[in-house]
Write a structure and sequence with these properties.
Pur-cyt_permease; single chain; 2 strands; 1% strand; 21 helices; globular; transmembrane; transmembrane helix; two-stranded antiparallel sheet; transport; mainly alpha
Length: 496
């Protein structure tokens, strides 16, 4: 297999744009001739990617822990802005490398060593999908008494079909859902401010409680950071001329505004109806604006879950293909992509059917652990891209098991292991907490610790890396890979 292998199995018709209806690429490099789209298209992908029902619960945590509404809202906004900062920098890698997000881990961890983060990412995709299937099932049962099983299967079928169509459909659907959610959120926000149903205690800036504030801040930050494993999957078809700055800001604004705004719906709903379940609190909060709007708000927030399901299936497929390629070289085809989508769908649906009433609570704890696992990876990947190698990579060598990046990269693996271990004393998972977290009264600052330690150690061990010699190889390794790039020019040199 080469990085530019193309599927010969696509039987879909080609639209007037000249691009096939069904996406033919998967983990392989996207040549410049196939790059298309506008950089602002990243805004709706991540606005709609965050503005949905599953995000609402994230904004209710501070209130549940005893914080008042105004300080929980401030923590939501600041935490979202902080976590998205790292996620958006990953997004800029897509146009520069023309590769999916997770396959870009090979230069830091090695051809085989990258399996460490891929297995974790794959678990995340399957778990998130099962979580959303259950959430949709409970919502449809509440609204129309639809059997859970029908909801689970229907959600999986729709998500798989849309993921088969792929990248271009995801972008188009996200734009329409952004229009829908923007209107719904404006009506809710303006209406709830006009009605002003809040008590003085809920809006008292003098009633600051540190523990609920920090828990809410880092929960929102980690939630946004978790998108890092997806993000350049949906920017990799953009031309590299869009630049780092513009791709960063369009991603950052879309995810921060969509995520924080939707979390604030959860903050308001929990503040007004602290004893109600998620669905009931949203309906009741919406009905404060005007009678019947609560149901409209709920339905609007469910629709983007279809797109999120598609993102999970799509990203899970790419990660599974990357994992398979590390074990045994494969030629990426549409048929293999469809097969991996079916595997992801079967796994998530089995989990949804096997869940009980405690699943959602257990899954929230599971997501905390996944946040711990991805924090060191984020630090290492970004430091490598922006500081160590400065965007200079060879596409061919990324797909070469005996290439310059090696099968196992001790620098990345060591930095990851030490970074993760440094987080454990500060960890809080349910009622369990590390000694440092217990000493601080249950505060979880693992994200800060993991980012600083992993990034710092990786910078230190990379002092022995001969970047100059590696770059000399990179500048010629991809000759002929892309006909639109002159020989002797690195495909990624423009990121320096």
């Amino acid at each position: 297999m080469t990085a530019t292998s193309r599927s010969t199995t696509a039987a879909a018709a080609t639209p007037s744009s000249g691009r096939p209806v069904i996406e033919t690429r998967s983990i392989d490099y996207v040549p410049l001739a196939e790059r298309h789209g506008k950089v602002w298209h990243l805004f709706p992908v991540w606005f709609a990617g965050d503005a949905h029902l599953a995000t609402v619960a994230t904004g209710a945590i501070g209130v549940a822990l005893g914080g008042n509404l105004i300080w929980t809202a401030i923590a939501v906004v600041l935490g979202s802005a902080f976590g998205t900062f790292f996620m958006a920098f990953h997004s800029t890698q897509g146009p520069q490398l023309g590769l999916p997000q997770m396959v870009q881990s090979r230069p830091q961890f090695g051809f085989v060593g990258a399996l460490l983060v891929w297995v974790t990412a794959l678990t995340t995709y399957v778990g998130y999908t099962a979580f959303n299937q259950i959430l949709v099932g409970r919502t449809l049962d509440h609204l129309a008494h639809v059997p859970d099983g029908a909801s689970y299967v229907g959600y999986a079928v729709v998500g798989i079909v849309l993921a088969v169509v792929g990248y271009d459909f995801i972008h188009r659907a996200s734009r329409w859902l952004t229009y829908l959610m923007f209107v719904a959120l404006v009506v809710f926000s303006v209406g709830i401010v006009a009605v002003d149903p809040f008590s003085p205690a809920q809006t008292d800036l003098g009633a600051f409680a540190l523990s609920p504030f920090l828990v809410q801040f880092f929960t929102a930050a980690v939630y946004q950071l978790s998108w890092s494993i997806y993000v350049s999957d949906y920017s990799r078809y953009l031309p590299p001329t869009v630049g780092v700055r513009s791709s960063f800001w369009w991603t950052y604004l879309g995810a921060t505004i969509g995520g924080a705004w939707m979390m604030l719906v959860g903050t308001v709903a929990a503040g007004l109806f602290p004893k109600a379940a998620l669905v009931e609190s949203i309906i009741s909060a919406g009905n404060k604006v005007f009678h019947g709007f609560g149901l409209t708000l709920l339905l609007a927030s469910v629709l983007p879950l279809v797109t999120i399901g598609t993102l999970n299936f799509y990203g899970g497929s790419l990660t599974l293909l990357s994992s398979m390629d590390s074990v045994r070289r494969i030629r990426p085809t549409v048929a293999k992509r469809v097969a991996t989508l079916l595997v992801i769908g079967l796994l998530s649906t089995a989990i949804a059917f096997g869940s009980d009433e405690t699943f959602l609570q257990q899954f929230e704890r599971f997501l905390v652990v996944l946040g711990y696992l991805f924090t060191p990876w984020t630090a290492i990947n970004l430091v490598d891209f922006y500081v160590i190698r400065r965007g200079h990579y060879s596409i061919r060598e990324i797909f070469n098991p005996r290439g310059i990046y090696g099968r196992w990269s001790w620098r990345g693996l060591l930095s990851y292991a030490v970074g993760f271990a440094s987080m454990m004393p500060f960890a809080v998972v349910g009622d369990s907490m590390g000694p440092a977290a217990r000493w601080m009264g249950g505060l979880d600052i693992t994200m800060i610790v993991g980012l600083v330690v992993s990034a710092g150690l990786y910078l230190l061990v990379c002092r022995s890396l001969d970047v100059t010699a590696e770059r000399a190889v990179v500048d010629h390794a991809d000759d002929g890979l892309d006909p639109d790039v002159p020989p002797g020019t690195s495909l990624t040199a423009h990121t320096a």
